[in-house]
Amino acid sequence: MSDYVVELRHVTKRFPGVIAMRDMHIQIKPGEIHGLIGENGAGKSTLIKVLTGVYVPEEGEIYVDGNRVSFSNPVQAREAGIACVYQELNIVPMLPVVDNVFMGRKVKKPNGLLDYPRMHREAHEALTMLGHPEIDTKTECGKLGMGLQQMVEIAKAVSLDAKLLIMDEPTSSLGEQEVKQLMTTVRRLKSQGIAILFVSHKLEELFELCDRVTVMRDGEHILTEDMANMTNDKLIQAMVGRSLDNQFPKEFGVKGECMLEVRHLKEIGVLKDVSFKAYGGEILAFAGLVGAGRTETMRALFGADKLDGGEIYIHGKPVNIKDPGQAIRHGIAFLTEDRKGQGLVLSENIRMNLILANMKQFRKGFLLQHGDIEQNSQQRIRELRIKTPSSGEITGQLSGGNQQKVVIGKWINCDADIYIFDEPTRGIDVGAKVEVYHVMNDLVKQGKCVIMVSSELPEVLGMADRVVVMREGEVMAEIDRDSAHFNQEDIMKAAWGGKIA
User: Fold this and answer.
1) 255-264 confidence digits (pLDDT tens)
2) How many Å apart are CA 474 and CA 469, to the nearest integer?
3) Which secondary structure element, helix H or strand E, spans residue 475, and what is its range?
4) What pLDDT score was predicted for residue 469?
5) What contacts 44, CB < 8 A, 6 or more positions away?
6) Cα–Cα distance between 257 and 151 in angstroms, integer?
7) What is the CA radius of gyration of the chain?
8) Which of 137, 302, 305, 495 could lock onto 327 through a cystine, CB 3.0 to 4.6 A?
9) Are 347 and 396 in contact (CB under 8 A)?
10) Cα–Cα distance measured from residue 486 to residue 484, given in angstroms and rounded to the nearest whole number
């Protein structure tokens, strides 16, 4: 009997022009929470896809319970007891919970009809085991919150009698309470003897949950170690191959003119009397809890959502922004938090994505100037350190951090005055985060205005010159960097609706 529920030995996976994973090994014990971490592009997604049968490796061996296995498709991996809850949930919103739990499987009666009584019973048992007996298996999944939808995905794995559950960035879209709920569920699964491979960029989650951690870099195994023997600095150095002495490399610009002034913005049911000013040469951060109205404020400024009242001034002049095209012409760039859904065309290559927001710069008449486009692409790839074999690489093939850099490059090509970064480092590793911060610093030093929406308070405190705190569509506080209230406690107090002196 093996000591490991799943083991990879000397696994290599190649794609045209790149080795995605080289001589990789990992051993996962029954009933352990095993962390997996690495920079974007380190090979984590490739490892997950090899384990789940999406990719077939050219070299190496996979063992389950000590027996060598070979997966040529995800069904074989699932039958072997390996399940995955992906960052982007595989939920069909209009179908009830029970159908989502049994997606891809048929539980039939002898007469050939689906055995719904048994399916409802087993789905309820799985949800009860996860600590959520209150979820009605007849409810449409789309009517559940993100956290409960995730529980449905986990229930799907539990009902399969999974030996190994892979959780890929499971907290990236969850609020604080949902994260606590998820961690309780993960510990409950561990107590049932299920092995968890917990993939996360958030170091604090690894330290809170994991028994051991494996670090990958450039597609290779760097270390596997007990979490008790690790520190933040050791993990970061193993991930990036160098020490990041300053995770928030704040640089100060020269505060310039008021580039954007917002007065009494209103959107019925969403925003209530939002007012603030943003200046060139500074980073203005927006903090608050999930649902505070930060993203909605930015969407309204960018013309993506219709306002019911209020005034917007750019360089002191009133403007009426009805759509994103007008916002771009007024010098506003908006890096949306949903880079895959709204920031990029994933099926297009890098060079085309880089010019999407300003095609006219690369066009003569009706014809695109492909030489200019390629020259620009190479410049952006160098400046932003985008890891790619070429500018012709399909953007959807890039890691999350490199996709984010393409979005940034797209908006830099617009030479805007006001840059809105909505959750700019969500789902990317610490090395890529630092590179994003350097881009923000460069913009500030050029006299640009940078507005950053972030749910990460260390990021807000590390990079902002001023902070606007919102709650339920209202501005609760505005705090300067040199204020005594520029700290985590007072920002959270304001975010919960408390008054700060």
Assistant:
1) 999 999 999 9
2) 8
3) strand 474-480
4) 95
5) 36, 37, 38, 199, 216
6) 49
7) 24
8) 302
9) yes
10) 6
